[in-house]
What does this fold into?
Amino acid sequence: MLDLSTPALPVDLLDWGDYRIEGITSLSPSGVAGLGEAGWQPTRANMIYPLTGDQSLWIRFTVPPAPDNERWYLEVPYPSVNRVSLFTLDSAGQWNEQSAGDTLAVNGWPVPHRHPLLPVNVSAEEPKKYMVRVDNPYSFGAPLRFVSESYLSRNEQRTSLILGIYFGLAGLAVTLAALSAVSLRDSAYGLYAVSVALMALTQAAITGIAGLHLWPEFPVWNDLSSLVLPVWTVASLLWFSSAVVSMPVRSRRLHQLLTGLGFLGLAAGVAIILAEPAQRFYLMVPYIVVSMVAATLALLWARRRGDRYGGWLLLGSLPLIAASLFPLARLSGMIPVSFLTMYGMQLGVAIELPIVMVILMLRSQHRRENMRRIQGLDRVDPATGLINEPVFAERMMRMIARSERLKHQSVVLMIDLVNTDQIQRDFGRRAAEELPLRMAARLLSTAREIDSAARLSEQRFGMLVEGPVSPEEAATLGPRIVARCLMPYKGLPETCTAQVRVAYALVPRQGPSAEIVLDRLAQRLTNIPPESKRAVFLVPDYKAPA
It folds into this structure.
């Protein structure tokens, strides 16, 4: 027998009631009571009642005498139920009705709440008889439980804290994604902002927050929103996934498939609005399942084709995909209403949001680096990252001008890699192609922060050493570079080293023109006999023709 005096709350109905399913939805409590005892069966915990749109579930129970020092409520923790009516038998033998559900305006409920909450009149002296009618277009598996006003207040405070944290996190993600979409001009951020906003609205509809606060006077949309919004959310996630892995570039057909599935989701949402209540489930669930499978396969395909974010995006989406299975199973009548069917997707989204935001930030950083490389191709050698010849000449002109103004000397060096053919014969073409890149790294390690290193041609490099530099100090620079280049390189055979020849000159003693300096350095290297054992050559001071 029900015992509302127990301190353990809430009190579930369990097997203390009887139920029957009737196909005549116009039956009154009196009419149901007059059907006799033959069709009644005992209720059970976690029971799923197989309802259809033209059937009603009737449950009867008796509440024994209980303390009436505070108010009690019958709670049905399922915001998406169409209608729940509580009938109380009064002393005159009349059944008094109270109703709540998402087909009724929340403002008109006996107690406006996230889910049906119907006052129960208990008596300390005599038992009270009740009947509950549940109308729903598909299976109903929510528990019926009794809660006191004090318990309800405490529980709502905890629930409000959890929901507040979730919606705050979702609001922050939407704001950051929207700002990033504008500042970075990245459509992926914009699509993610739309997806997170739709996910938040979906959770608001599923948990009853939306019906209570956003559209309490629109019962039609309150009934439809928990079916339509998930479909539109999945559609936006398809577009977002395609944008993140650059699907338009990788596969035009696959991109068109995901885009088409997204637009099909918009159409499916409209079809759900126009369909009969009992048919809406058959439009929603297949679309979500097919879209999730398509998105998963597309991300796996992108990962196998070398996309660095497809695998991480799929991994970050796994909590959301796993959590979405619980409400889908609930709609299919496979499991009853539980914590995971109500709040599982919020947990999944709370895990997914920071992961996806990190993925987007890394993706943006990589895109910016690529853009900087592309924009710098006219100034930087793409293979080594060193400045190219025009920039080298420009910087040399400035260095010459500074040296003249400050009355000191600077140094210009030109370095030729001379053993590439031998490296290719001895160690193969790959080693010969890799050697100039290793040599560029050695030059950078030799240069100071104020110096400049450049790649002037395939096998020729240059270096600017800012003054003041004495002739004695300048004479040590060439041997130092030769020694650094002759040191073994990690990952290559010990004898696979760079043999270089260095020509250097002091400026501004070489004349006021960078072209003159470069021509004299190049001419000096060209005139070196092949059999010469020397590696460092000084270019004499320039003397203008008479």
